[in-house]
Amino acid sequence: MRTSWADSADNSANGSGNTNASACPPRGAYVPPHLRNRTLSSEAPPPPPAAHPAPLPVNDRVNHGGQVTHQGGYFKADHGRQQQQQGYGSSFQSGGWNGRGVGRERGRREVNPFENDEAEDLSISEQENTGINFDAYDDIPVETSGENVPPPVNTFAEIDLGDALNQNIQRCKYVKPTPVQRYAIPISLSGRDLMACAQTGSGKTAAFCFPIISGIMREQYNQRPRVARTAFPLALILSPTRELSCQIHDEAKKFSYQTGVKVVVAYGGAPITQQLRELERGVDILVATPGRLVDLLERARVSLQMIRYLALDEADRMLDMGFEPQIRKIVEQMDMPPPGIRQTLLFSATFPKEIQRLASDFLSSYVFLAVGRVGSSTDLIAQRVEYVLDSDKRSHLMDLLHAQRETGIDGKQGLTLVFVETKKGADALEHCLCVNGFPAASIHGDRTQQERELALRSFKTGNTPILVATDVAARGLDIPRVAHVVNFDLPNDIDDYVHRIGRTGRAGKMGLATAFFNEGNLSMAKPLADLMQEANQEVPAWLTRYAARATYSGGHRNRRSGGSRFGGRDFRKDGSLNKGTTDFHGGGTGGGYGNYGGGYGQGVTSAWD
Ligand SMILES: Nc1ncnc2c1ncn2[C@@H]1O[C@H](COP(=O)(O)OP(=O)(O)OP(=O)(O)O)[C@@H](O)[C@H]1O
Fold first, then answer.
1. Atom 12 of ligand 1, residue of closest alpha carbon
2. What is the DSSP letter of 412?
3. ipTM of the prediction
4. Which residues form the Helicase C-terminal domain (predicted)?
5. Residues 6 or more apart from 250 whose CB is under 8 A from it?
6. Pocket test for ligand 1, best of 172, 205, 313, 475 (most atoms within 8 A of CB)
7. What's the rounded Cα separation, in Å, for the pair 567 and 369?
8. pLDDT for res 219
9. Cβ 244 under 6 angstroms from ligand 1
10. CA of 37 to the centre of ligand 1 (A)
11. Cα–Cα nearest to 365, from 145, 576, 85, 575
12. Which of 28, 433, 500, 595 is spaced 20 to 30 A from 131 at the CA atom?
């Protein structure tokens, strides 16, 4: 009989299990708490040096040539920009598309992307999406700004996305739109540019995919240039990591099944020949990482001249110092139509003002949408912070993992994602966990793409229920059953923390996030304490003292200094750029929101590829 990993930890501690355990250095040799006779040093954090007395932290192109009308149950937009593009008709036939072959991808039988879902135990797949707790969203504050913002919808039925897409929404078991979808879909369908900031795990992928797919279905794009071996996609979706691009591709394929809209993915680390072959077979929506796309553009295998929709997922990350030059090259220096001709959709859970300012170069008379409280730190994610010395982190982590054996979800072991700062640190921790009987895999930028995919698959399936990761896995990844996120090493930036913990507590489900804090994380004390307080989490008194100390010593440089009720605030409202109007929706009690930090601190880019 196969024993569980926690059992094998017990066995190894008893000397009967893992023979590799002896290979681990003495500090790494794990002894479960019940077999030990000592208390953890981390349980009683040393008080910080006397702090200065300090108060405790308290708890436009609007009408771009067309009117948006609400006709017969769906939004119709007379996009002025479409008329500027040659060859774009607009005879949307509800439920079908123009000249697109149902069930065929340019002569090939279309693979049913729902096949695996249907083969799965129905009760599980039902739980995944229809089990979403929409009540958790009732009290969510929403802010829109910009001129003539189209009104939100309450149901998918209110917007005619087309029969084929509607069927796919049903196949996905999406019963009603999430808050970001309620607002973003009508805004995008009306043809407006959009900067959307909404909590992690709240359904942003569908929020930008549905309008793109529906738009392509509804219009005729039959006059694409014919240049041998060059692909002319109509939509480009960029994301910062290979894994996220693959995930968006998988989702987009489900949403576009039998619509005739063809989705292709291109990302680095994988052989380019296969991707070229796919592109040659035709592409409507290209999902890509920036590096591989630049390669394809330079080889003239892709032209952006027909791009009608540009979406940046994790847009703040895409426009920070690591990626901005590549993004500018793709968007501004190649042959992509300018803002106002193409429609641009930017999505993230975090949007620092400095990045908003950069992003506005890519947009035309856009709507800003903020949904939900800061980042993902809603009540759905229970946040804990523990004082743990660097030297105690491994044994403390193993204690947490050991304790989890007792608290499986629905009789199943939940998955645990452990974030570390460096690639070497990831390797070392994975090794230590494995030799101590905790089946772990790791993922970081020094791994081959094959190794990365293998690790992710093994984690998703529960074969290795622990994944040690750098920030390469911090954003966007939607892995069901991630019950616990451990910040073994805290990031230097509170926004990175928001994205990391957002790998749990997704789509209305509960999750747990534990952070190990020590003197090395002083700059995170105040933003972390503020964030936890805003999310109604218990802030340990010692963290409050560190936060006060950090404030007084000037150690706090994080960008979200003021705290905010929203994941971001429209930077246009701060200065002379404020031409639009602002609407607030829902959100329960008042309290307004403070400044969204401003300033853009240097991000840690080393863990990214
Ligand atoms: N309307 C809906 N009803 C039920 N489930 C939904 C709905 N929309 C999306 N989901 C599910 O919610 C989960 C999270 O969605 P998604 O990955 O798009 O979140 P996100 O907002 O992009 O998160 P992140 O900020 O981490 O990238 C997915 O499993 C998705 O299938």
1. 507
2. B
3. 0.99
4. 396-547
5. 113
6. 205
7. 10
8. 83
9. no
10. 45
11. 145
12. 500
Tell me how far apart the alpha carbons of residues 607 and 592 are, in angstroms, rounded to a whole number: 36
Q: What is the pLDDT of residues 283-328, one digit of tens each?
A: 999 999 999 999 999 999 999 999 999 999 999 999 988 899 999 9
Q: How many CA atoms lie within 13 A of 434 on its CB side?
A: 15
CB of 475 closer than 8 Å to CB of 314: yes
Q: Tokens for 428?
A: 């070392």
Alpha-carbon distance of 347 to 244, in angstroms, equals 14
Is the Cβ–Cβ distance between 430 and 440 less than 8 Å? yes
Helix, strand, or coil (residue 505): coil
Is the beta carbon of 507 within 6 A of some atom in ligand 1? yes
How many residues make up the chain in this entry?
A: 609
Q: From CA 580, how far away is CA 275, in angstroms rounded?
A: 43
Residue 71 φ/ψ, nearest 5 degrees = -120, 125
Place of tokens 């027909």: 306
- What pTM was estimated for this model as a whole? 0.79
Q: Which residues of 162-174 are buried (b: 16+ CB within 10 A; e: fewer)?
A: bebbbebbebbeb
Q: Identify the residue whose C-alpha is closest to ligand 1 atom 2.
A: 174
- Give the span between the Cα atoms of 235 and 211, in whole angstroms: 11
Q: What is the pLDDT of residues 37-93, one digit of tens each?
A: 654 444 445 544 443 333 323 223 223 333 333 333 333 343 334 333 333 333 333
* Structural contact between residues 485 and 383, judged by C-beta atoms closer than 8 angstroms: no
